[in-house]
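Many introductory courses stop at the sequence. We go one step further.
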Amino acid sequence: METVALRYIPADAAQVKALEQALNIHPALCRLLVQRDVLTLEQARAYLRPSLDDLYDPFLMKDMDKAVQRLAEAIVGKEKILLYGDYDVDGTTAIALMYRFLEPLHPHLDYYVPDRYEEGYGISHQGIAYAHECGATLIIAMDCGITDIEQAQRAKSYGIDLIICDHHLPGLHLPDALAVLNPKRPDCHYPFKDLCGGGVAFKLIQAYAQYSLAAGATVWQSLLEYLALGIAADIVPITDENRILAWHGLRQLNQSDSPGLNALIEQSKRQRPVRINDIVFGLAPAINAAGRMSDAHQAVRLLLANDRTVATEYARVLDYRNQLRREYDQRTTEEAQALFDPWQAERRSIVLYQPHWHKGVVGIVAARMVEHFHRPTVLLTQSGHLATGSARSIPGVNLYEALFLCRDLLLSFGGHAHAAGLSLRPENIRAFSERFEAAIQTLTPQMPTGKVIDVHAEIDFADITPEFWSLLRRFEPFGPGNPTPVFRTRGVQDTGYSRVLKDAHLQVSLRQGNRVCSGIAFGQSYHWELLSSRQLLDICYSIEESHWYSQAELKLQVRDIRVAE
């Protein structure tokens, strides 16, 4: 059983009280608002009722005017436009988003997704060659391109204009493209820096609709269902614009008439209403499996499918690939965990290399290693004559900065604070492992050990009412920067109806006073003896709504159980 520490998220008592008086709602909910820097009545209204009217002017983004003007020229001139996207969820959904927007305006469209293994990440030389061969005179690259200096130059040599819509950190020099849309570029003063790649593409759509169509949200609001997938899957902060776009995108997704998206949801066996977690753990892995195990074009075909029967078949293909991915995933996870024993190795990081590991799953397995060992992890495999792989980090440890300190040992790297990709020569792996460990120690003198649960507020079971839940749901969608609220309730007791499920989980039935609440404690069967002792306990949990035969019931998602203080 791993060590679990509780960390109470602070909230200024005076600010909580002021909000309680202004809003007349439960103090625990006011505490949650203050923790999210929502401090006034006006801010609370904007937070609890996300409005598309609060989106920023897209023309605040550097180069947006040039991008819009060039797109307008291409449409008027009936030029061939190639939509180029990365092979992950963010890239493929960005293609679908842009394609669906432009299709009614401009039939001369094509799209291209690079092969993960043959071409790698970013704008490839093969992709530029394809654009030239098919007669495209404009490429819109989404979720990639910010470091592709040579490829931009090659496109220019062919007379192809390039618009880059990216959100990754730029290098020292920007590509020589017609327009580089990226809120992270140093000279861009766009107010929100954390858009996903599809989010940047959406700002181009918003700007074009505003400039050339004199149209508002009615033109693109129905397309936000694609953007919600990208925001959720790319693990960007669910704050500011992202939260507004995700909120409206999820609402659109749950009433979508898209055959492709509906087939994807049905194949995932996720219940509606679909939420962020359903995308992250259900829909996104299926889309990603296309590029991980074979050809990511299959994901775009599904997203753009207009026929229900065809969409269902595409969804089945992706589901099969996802099952295959799971097999590789499980096998690689077992091997990686066996290779690293933290109780023997006094290291703050993990760097592992096995030439036979499947390149399509090393990122997923790195994330599992982080979850299991609570250390930044780099997993590498062989790709041609190089070692390539993925890295994942823990909260508070900036992965990109750590890799930057190792840059002289790397052939390439890119990403952000939580996730990155890299390549290097196999003979440099040992030196990189030591340098990466030193970088992590430098950046994090006090490394967190063990699991930490953030607790946002204390409530009693009696507080969990339909009214409380109705307001709590207004805090959605949850994700990074807008975490799922975790509550603590003291002095609860097993009713005698709790039981162990599949030797791993606990189905709990707990009483506090006259109120009984039930729920699930995943992976916590080790608490059975404590639970069945019938002594008073303290629990930490989030609240979920469960649907069974059209009946909704509030359930506890238990995070921790311990003897009452």
